[in-house]
Write a structure and sequence with these properties.
Length: 172
């Protein structure tokens, strides 16, 4: 049931049961108590292009720029050099790239947080599913406000990346 899983507010959004159940590289990265969140959007653009936009997270967070990009606007023109990935690179200032599969996923880590942005084939040709799985270290009742805030920011981020990839795919 897409997007209807029970949990903390903002913990699940748009993810199918199969997507919530799939293994991703961030699984098991953090030790101790963790809370996992799965957020997914459909994108009417090919997987390679959506992945290229995920790599743009090296340059900016693509969320609410006033809050998380010091008021600077996230670029709306894609830099193809940002797809040249090497473990240890910074993403969104706070995160370090810990692993990646070209064209498919990037896995990032910061203090107490691990996230994989994965791009899966969509249900029809030329479409994709952009899946972000986030692990937070800590107890769910303490993390509830952080998870909801992260959901608001990540929802904006995923929708922005979706719209930019869609625009580029359909401009050709």
């Amino acid at each position: 049931m897409s997007g209807q899983r029970r949990g903390l507010p903002g913990q699940y959004w748009g993810a199918t049961a199969a997507e919530i159940g799939m293994e991703l590289p961030c699984d098991g990265v953090l030790s101790g108590r963790t809370v996992v969140c799965d957020r997914v959007v459909d994108v009417s653009a090919p997987q390679e292009l959506v992945f290229a936009w995920v790599c743009q997270l090296r340059a900016a967070p693509y969320s609410y720029d006033l809050l998380d990009n010091f008021g600077r606007r996230s670029p709306v023109i894609r830099d193809p050099h940002l797809t040249e990935l090497v473990a240890g690179q910074r993403f969104m200032t706070l995160f370090e790239l810990t692993g990646y599969t070209p064209g498919t996923q990037v896995t990032l880590r910061a203090s107490g947080v691990a996230v994989t942005y994965a791009v899966h084939p969509g249900t029809t040709a030329g479409t994709s599913r952009l899946h972000a799985r986030v692990y937070f270290r800590g107890r769910s009742w303490l993390l509830a406000p952080i998870i909801f805030g992260d959901y608001l920011m990540m929802r904006k981020q995923l929708l922005t990346l979706k719209n930019l990839a869609h625009r580029e795919a359909h401009a050709a």
